Structure formats: structure tokens, C-alpha cells
Amino acid sequence: MHISEGVLSGPVLLSGAALAAVGTAVGLKRIDYDRIMPVAILSAVFFIASLIHVPIGPASGHLILNGLLGVVLGWAAFPSILVALTLQAVLFQFGGLTVLGLNTFTMATPAVLCFYVFRPLLAKNNGSRFAAAFCCGSMSILLSTVLTAGALSLSGDAFVEAAWVLFYSHIPIMIAEGVITAFAYSFLAKVKPEVLTA
């Protein structure tokens, strides 16, 4: 779901960069130094999952796992995703440095929002926890897709059709991410619950 360089208008790029900077600053301020290791590990998971592209019709998709980062890290998802996207831009030319801020914003904001929306259900030790983790994973992708499609649409009418293709091609990924997030959260809650105290 990376937006490439040279596509978006200047105001959209600047707005995304400013919002990503605020989110990253908040995330860095809230990171407990005892939790640096989970942040680094999940940043690496995000980095690797985003490298595997699967053709879906006229577009391609890949796992993002921003819901998993959000459910485990909370606000720390911002710096975690920023580091992974920076490495992808520098090493593999995915996205790019000029769109780094907007790409970070579109992937990290939904993760943090879903963390707070579903946090009360995630704290419960019953069947609702699995469902909440599924919703957190799938809704993060849905919101990321909407934000990315919105950024494309705001950059010109020529990108409106591409925005719709992006949205529809990510519906299977929403389901897959929900399932992965639900099982990963349930597993962590059983074997290492202290990791989930964002």
C-alpha cells in the first residue's frame, strides 16, 4: 500500500509528513525503554511482511500487520512503522523518502485508533478478545486503505479510479490480517501477556 514518489500533490505530502511527525513524537515520548525490544521486533515483522507482494487482479497486495502493531504497541506503532518504511524506501525503493511521512501516517494512525477503540474488549479474557483482535487487524487495513485512497483522490481526479482499485484489491487482505492479528494476539495473551501492556 505504498504510494510512490511523484504521485501526490505538495499539500497532501506536507500534511501527511506533519501528521506523521506529531504521531512519531507522541509515540517516542510514550515508549517505555523496557519495551524497546517488542517495538524493534514488530518493526522487523512489519518490514518483512510488507516485502511479500501477491498479485490481486490489476494490483498487488501484501500483508501490512499494522493492526498487530497497534494492538501490541499502541502509540509506539508510529516510530516502529516509520523505521520499517524508511528501510524499505532506502534499501528497496518501496514508496520513497518524499512520501515517507504520508505512508507512515496512513498505516500508523489506523493502528493507534483501533487500539483505543478495541482496547476494552482486548482486556477481557473471553471470546470477545479474539473477535476484538480480528476487528483491530481488519479495521486497521480498512482505514489505511481509505486514507491512502483519500490521499490519491485529493491529488487529482486522475487518481480516483486507482483509489477504488486499491480499495477493492485490499478486501481479501483485510480478512487475512484480521485472522492473523486475532491468532497472534491470543497466542501472546497466553504465553507472554506482559508484552500486551502498551
TrEMBL record:
Main location: membrane
Subcellular location: Cell membrane
Membrane topology reported for the UniProt record: Multi-pass membrane protein
Pfam families registered for this protein in UniProt: CbiM
Entry keywords, A to Z: Cell membrane, Membrane, Transmembrane, Transmembrane helix, Transport
Keyword Transport attributed: yes
Residue ranges crossing the lipid bilayer per the database entry: 36-56, 63-85, 91-118, 130-154, 166-188
Alphabetized InterPro entries for the sequence: CbiM/NikMN (IPR002751)
Protein name as annotated: Cobalt transporter CbiM
Organism: Pseudodesulfovibrio portus
Primary gene name: cbiM
